[in-house]
Amino acid sequence: KVGWYNAILQPTFHLPYPDDTLAFVVLSTPSMFDKALKPFVKKERLKIIRDPVDQCVSHHLSRVKEKFPDQKVDVIFDYEILPSRKPKFLAQTAAHVAGAAYYYQRKDVKLDPWGKKKIYGVCIHPKYGGWFAIRGLLLFPDIQVPFLEQSAPVDCVSTEEKRIELLEQFNFHWQNGRYRDIIEVKERYSEEQKAYFATPPAERFRLLGLTQEAQ
């Protein structure tokens, strides 16, 4: 429910819907690369003019909207920002309140070892660890769900030591991706997918075999 999200954030980040409004957080799993992105690029290669992943997600979520012709469906993507440069929604907070993934933050560590350093939080999924992404929010403004019960996210990094290790790895060594494997995972990115996301965005077109003209 939108109200779960709004309740824990400052008013500047609130979503402008009644508290009981139904919302879905959309995640992409490791298999998205082979099952969605590569077929999309193959089929739409001449129409890809910005980030291929963003366009692929947009394509699939617009197809979801088509499945509900009698409903108003609002979509907010993870990359969208307001004129103030703030994100349109806080993806990790949304994932946490929806019970999709646990958002580990500095406040989850009792004996904080970081002093005055800025420490960013990170979501961990009970099945995929850090090998997933939060892609968007689907909102159904005309559907109110007052009796929907909130499910807590799975606290899969439950020890103090592991939480410190997770936040250390994510904040200071994120390039090596070790934070993603903080728990035993069922599935992770393929080597091809890792190479894709490790490549600077401007060079990813070449990796996908897209021409300069398409770029």
From TrEMBL:
Pfam families: MMACHC (PF16690)
Entry keywords, A to Z: Cobalamin, Cobalt, Cytoplasm, FAD, Flavoprotein, FMN, NADP, Oxidoreductase
First-listed, main subcellular location of the protein, grouped into a coarse class: cytoplasm
Superkingdom of the organism of origin: Eukaryota
Any GO BP annotation: cobalamin metabolic process
Names of the cofactor(s): FMN; FAD
Catalytic function, reaction form: 2 cob(II)alamin-[cyanocobalamin reductase] + 2 hydrogen cyanide + NADP(+) = 2 cyanocob(III)alamin + 2 apo-[cyanocobalamin reductase] + NADPH + H(+); apo-[alkylcobalamin reductase] + adenosylcob(III)alamin + glutathione = S-adenosylglutathione + cob(I)alamin-[alkylcobalamin reductase] + H(+); apo-[alkylcobalamin reductase] + methylcob(III)alamin + glutathione = S-methyl glutathione + cob(I)alamin-[alkylcobalamin reductase] + H(+); apo-[alkylcobalamin reductase] + an R-cob(III)alamin + glutathione = cob(I)alamin-[alkylcobalamin reductase] + an S-substituted glutathione + H(+)
A molecular function (GO) term: cyanocobalamin reductase (cyanide-eliminating) (NADP+) activity
Location of this chain's protein in the cell: Cytoplasm
Family: Belongs to the MMACHC family.
The name this protein goes by in its record: Cyanocobalamin reductase / alkylcobalamin dealkylase
